[in-house]
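Q&A log
Question type: sequence-to-structure
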Amino acid sequence: THKLSSFVSLTNKTTYYHTDRVNDYMDYYQQSVPKHRFNLSLNLLSEDTFISKLIKGYCPSIRRLNVLKIELEDYTKPFNFFTDGSLQCSHLNAKMGFAWVLDDPSIPNSNFFYGSTQHFASSTKAESFAVLTALLVCPNSAVINVYSDSKYFIDTFNVFPTLSKRKQLKQNNYLIWFAIFYIISINSLQVKVFKI
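Response status: OK
Response body:
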């Protein structure tokens, strides 16, 4: 019994050690490889891990957001995003999807993104994720117009910064709202939302 528990303990330590080594190597690799070396990859400079620090998920989706951010770095016009979120309920589970389109035909490869999310399903959560991902790809000091069909999202967007911390924490999907306003603050974005 003692040998078995020692083996299990050793196996757990080895797994953690291996995981830590892999993580350390990936951190080193991300900071040292030039970004122009690969076509589709994370932008590997320290500033470019901003997206992957805020959201977790399907790696190709995170990569796509990073590629969009790189492609839009020099975009100087106001951003006009049309966002949408949807909720499909069934008796077994609920699926949430979201998408946004950047209204500018001069940028054919960088004008859309779509994805999905899970847990605590609501159409407002899906809409919030659409706006969150749209804001993530915008360069610093960008002027952004968001067009949404969700009145609840727009009302919450306009009132959330004025609420006390206690009331903010009681808001549905408050972590997403904190992330949205963190992105706006840290990147000095000017965001207006409009009902369509």
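Response note: The longest helix spans residues 2-32.
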